[in-house]
């Protein structure tokens, strides 16, 4: 006893068919959207590769920033060397063992 027409189907079967049709439509629509996004992304990436790579104003600004960062790095290193030197002098003057950055005394071992 298989139903032969739409009218003869039970409500549950009609509902199941309707849900399946909607699910298939949603999957198709989603895959079309994802495909369009992938092609748009590919086109955008291709156009970025062919665009001029340098902007003279931007290049000059980046060069100035790089020089400034190099100068800052040199000054920070000099400050660190000065701090190590002063710490060493104070430790020698007071006769205490040198302390590491964490505050723990530095131990020297002789074998």
SSE layout:
Blueprint: H1 11-50, H2 56-94
Describe it.
The chain has helices at about 10-50, 55-95. It is built from two helices and no strands. The radius of gyration is 37 Å and the shape is elongated. With about 110 residues, the chain is an all-alpha fold. The chain folds into two domains: about 1-50; about 55-100.
Oligomer category: single chain
User: pLDDT below 50 for ≥5 consecutive residues: which ranges?
Assistant: none
Radius of gyration: 37 Å
Q: What is the helix fraction of residues, given as a range?
A: over 70%
Head-to-tail CA distance between termini: 98 Å
The number of domains is 2
Features:
111 residues, 2 domains, 71% helix, mainly alpha, single chain
Short summary:
With 111 residues, the protein is an all-alpha fold.
